[in-house]
Amino acid sequence: MSELPRTEESYDAARVEEAFATFSERVQELESVAGELREELRALRSERLEQERLEQHVRRRRADEAWPVEPSEEPVGRDLAPAWIGSVPAPVSRAVAVPRFALEAIFLVLVAVFAGLADLTTTVIVIVMATALALVVV
What we know:
By secondary structure, the chain is mostly helical. 64% of the residues lie in helices and 0% in strands. It has two domains: 1-68; 101-138. The longest helix has 54 residues, at 13-66.
């Protein structure tokens, strides 16, 4: 009540009426907005329900397609393999792979050992090792 316009003796009737009219207009605006929001909420809920129905329908269709229509004569417990399984090639068996780096290191060590055992001079050993390294790098 402290916000109502006062005169010396009591409230100013014209200004009080004006304040209540403004308040009433604001309430009507808010009710209008609330009504619009309710309508939008109903529309969103109906869209969501429709979307959920469509998703359930799609899931049911996929589930129906996953199982055979006619009962199979195979023993119980075995699932039917999809048709594409036969087109997949069998895995290729491969020999044990040795990393190239290990083979190169072994080669360089063997060249160094044989060069040392061959009683070669230091210059020749350096040339042989440089040649072996060049072979490994290329």
